[in-house]
């Protein structure tokens, strides 16, 4: 098949689309575009959920690297020395210790059981963006005592009746209010609410934070231990590098990158998402393939006589086959371009109107690679769907084609 | 130029055997305007399709300028049709989505020995000859039946074929347009020494032919000069 033949095939294809049935072209392009959008939407949505959960876990739970006790031990002991060692390593931005304790919060007639977290506010600011999520009041200061920041769902809304609440709350605590906290060891104290935050991550939004020194008062001793330490890497340093460095420099506790932790805890979820994505992809590709197969088959059946005439005047069967092939390629290309535009518009819309659930907030997450891969898959499917009937009809003998 | 020997075409319909062509032997000389006439079902279109390599004979031999057609592959036959043969069909058979100019240029575009400039020149020239230059950007549906048939003749002529086949080219035309088309064939035949083989069942068409072959039941019943 030479250049001239391909040129003629392209001319026939182009003219057929330009001067043939406009509604058929528009409908086919729309179907391909919608199939493309469908192919990209669900995986992007699931990716968005995955990304959102991952980001929130990293931001509010484990940071880039998590140091926690080895199996059989409850705490990271010798905290000062461990923090000193970690903070001194190149590539480490900051290490932040965490200590939690179960407590009952009391405000007016309401009581609420939560697990309170003790942090060193200055360290935590370098590791977690929690301080940026204050909706009222302010973040904890390093020397604060008797002060607490609580999540908005914990504070509650005074306009919502208790029976209508999505999750139990204190019924409308405001900044400056005093709440009584009874810890699981029996220690009880009144705390002033210094700030209210909302992260969007359900675990963080079900708790409150107090300073390390306040927790020492609760425990009645200096705390040289933590339940876990979150470590933030400086820009340009990978989590894996930090992990290896910690192990190499003698951190004897369990060290895991965020990826390690997520793989363990979210592996099944991500696997399920992958299966859903695959099924969705296969269905979309099948729909596109079948639609294009039908469109081109109808086109070839309606053009049988013309195909016979073309063959009679000396047009090679390859030209006839590529004529229909090019039509599919043009239709698929237009459909994919429209599909990409639709997907991007949907992406923008969902960035402004994310899907919000009690557990996570998400919008679409799609990369140029996702768009390219899906375009390629759809394009190949379209070519196969178009060329099959085109190949069949191009082989028909002149007499039977002309009699059609 | 054309040597056809003992050509037979037999169709089988269940147990019934239909002899569409039954031992046809003819020679066609260069520059002839040959008419194939006969009643409906006499085998004239079948003969034209055999000569034009649009169908395979059951037996017999077709030799065109020394080439035995039965020896050609499918692709070679296609190329033979493109380079050496031209066709005019009863229902014009123009590509509806192409303009007049594009329809006429189509066979010329595929020739490897012609540049774009050459085939445009050839197409323009032939459209001038048939008097449809001013309609070159129109689509077939915007033309009358007579005009469409003239475009079909232009398409058949653009590659300057050795032989031009016309299968009842006036069947869908009124007598005025039929005359116009037949005059065009005569002009092409006389001015360009174009060999033409035309199938017709209209008796008055015979005035235009140099030679007439009459068929009945797949056999030649007469073969002679016009008026003989």
| C-alpha geometry of chain B | globular
Could you spell the SSE succession of chain A in H and E letters? HHEHEEHEEHEEEHEHEHHHEEHH
Q: Please work out how many helical segments of chain B DSSP would assign.
A: 6
* Strand line-up across the major sheet of chain B: 6-7-8-3-9-10
In the predicted model, the low-confidence regions of chain A spanning at least 5 consecutive residues are none
Which chains share the greatest interface? Answer: A-B, 27 and 31 residues
Q: Determine the structural class of chain A based on helices, strands and strand pairing.
A: alpha+beta
**Beta strands of chain A, count:** 12
By oligomeric state, this entry counts as heterodimer
Backbone CA Rg of chain A: 31 Å
Write the H/E string of chain B, N to C.
EEEHEEHEHHHEHEEE
What does the average pLDDT of chain B come to?
90
Strand content of chain A: 15-25%
- Percent of residues in helices of chain A comes to 40-55%
Main beta-sheet annotation of chain A: 6 strands, mixed, barrel
Please tell me how large the radius of gyration of chain B is.
18 Å
**What's the helical proportion of residues of chain B?**
25-40%
The average pLDDT score of chain A comes to 90
> What is the number of E strands of chain B?
10
- Shape type of chain A: elongated
Q: What's the tally of helices of chain A?
A: 12
